[in-house]
Amino acid sequence: MIAHSAHKIAQSGMERSGDVRPRLDPLTIAAVTVAIIAVSSSGALIAYAAAPALAIAFWRNALAVGVLAPVAVARRRDELRGLRAKGALRWCLLAGVALAVHFATWVPAPKLTTVATATALVATQPVWAGLIAVGQGRRLGRLTWLGIATAVVGAAVTAGVDFTSGGHTALLGDVLAVAGGLMAAVYTSLGEKARSQTSTTTYTTVCYSVCAALLLAVCLIFGVQLSGYTGSTWLALLALTAGAQLLGHSLLNYALHKISATTISVLVLLEVPGAALLGWAWLGQTPRPAAWPGILLLVSGVAVVVLGARRAPVPPTPDPLDLDLDTEPVTPAGRSDRRPPRASDR
User: Fold this and answer.
1) Which residues pair with 330 in a beta bridge?
2) Rounded distance, CA 69 to CA 89, Å?
3) Angle, CA 71 vertex, CA 42 and CA 46 arms, to 5°
4) I need a surface site. Which of 54, 78, 204, 233 has the fewest CB within 10 A?
5) Model pTM?
6) Residue 196 contacts by C-beta under 8 Å, 6 or more apart in sequence?
């Protein structure tokens, strides 16, 4: 079902004024399908892993650095040395701080509320990105404001249901998930500035390293257990890193060759029903019936925000594995300095 939906929606985004992309091929469709499944698994894996939330956040970044650092040192050593001179280092560092706060708020959420609810609320990132744009002096269209209002109403309904039936614990999970969405938008905004001067490999290596170091410090300060887990928990951590942290975002960036970033952003919202399905099939979780209208309103509102902002270019999600083989810096308009331009217009 997810593969079929991905195929249909991806085809609908093929033709755009001023940006004609090649015809979809089976490899691209497969990449999008696998990517959505990978990112959908994040909430369920977090909820399943028998480890403290902050430890999970640390290990998924530390393991990712273990994969990325050797590549960065081998292929981008000169660029790493020149980060300070280009002024890009501070943006990489700040993005790493924002990413650490994102994980510190988002990762506990699926353990406090349902996987589906937490995933839907953290998916409000485009809404927060729009509000950040307003704070930067940009103007949003009516459609975008309509989407923001719809998403806010949906989030309020969902949180209200959790509070009345799940108590303060579920409500705390909702608040943390929303905060995670906010910090993801901050991270993306800072990453846009960093990516205008650095390659993907260099940016993600520095950013993930800062994030892991900060989370490690917090874990040590508060005495969070970092080892002694069961084998199944370590497997969950490895799957979380390989799937959502690396493979998912990498394959989505690969698909940007033939699918618009706007379409990709809408496709990523399939993560919400995907997470709900995994939470039900694997963990036996089902959101409370009264919460579904709020979740649907929330996801619909975010989709409207994405579609309403399609004329405002931003860079794609960083591809830590460089699967698209485009490791050059991107301009603030979100396109590679290489010609012809390739992505994006989300």
Assistant:
1) 336
2) 16
3) 15
4) 78
5) 0.78
6) 329, 330, 331, 332
